[in-house]
Design goal:
alpha+beta, three-stranded antiparallel β-sheet, single chain
Length: 137
C-alpha cells in the first residue's frame, strides 16, 4: 500500500487548489471537484483545520484529503468539465436523448467510472449536437 503524503501548505488560484507536500513537491487539483471552495471568498478559504488525513472547512462543510492531491483525475476530463460547468443540463434527460443509462452517465461525470474513448466521443458528439440545436433554434 502506497503511503499517503501529507500536504503541509495549501493555496488557491481561480481554478485550482494547490498543495505542497513534506518533500516540497507541488500538487494541484481542480476546484470543480469542490464547488463550495470554488465559490468561497479568500477569507472563507482561510478558515480551515488540518486533520490526520486532510483539510476541513467547517463553515463550508467541505473536506479535501491529502490523498486526493495524487488522484489520477485531479483535473476533470473534457466530458466531466462540461457537465460540471453546466449544471442547468438535466443529466437524466440528456442521457435519454443519447440512449445512455442515466446512472452510468452520472458515474462518468462524477469519476466513479471511466468511459472508453469511443463512449466518451459518442457523448461529446451528443453534446456538440445539442449545441447545434440551440444555435439553430
Amino acid at each position: 500500500m502506497k503511503a499517503m503524503k501529507k500536504i503541509t501548505k495549501i493555496w488557491f488560484d481561480g481554478e485550482h487548489i494547490f498543495g505542497e507536500d513534506e518533500q516540497g513537491k507541488i500538487l494541484k487539483q481542480s476546484l470543480l471537484w469542490y464547488p463550495k471552495l470554488k465559490d468561497a471568498t479568500d477569507e472563507e478559504r482561510a478558515q480551515y483545520t488540518t486533520g490526520l488525513d486532510g483539510f476541513h472547512w467547517r463553515a463550508l462543510d467541505e473536506d479535501v484529503s491529502f490523498e486526493s492531491f495524487e488522484y489520477e483525475d485531479a483535473e476533470p476530463s473534457v466530458l466531466q468539465r462540461f457537465f460540471m460547468t453546466h449544471p442547468e443540463i438535466n443529466i437524466a434527460e440528456f442521457a435519454k436523448k443519447c440512449k445512455i443509462n442515466a446512472t452510468l452517465l452520472r458515474n462518468y461525470i462524477n469519476g466513479f467510472k471511466k468511459p472508453s474513448k469511443e463512449r466518451e466521443e459518442y457523448i461529446l458528439g451528443a453534446v456538440r449536437e445539442l449545441g447545434r440545436e440551440y444555435l439553430n433554434a
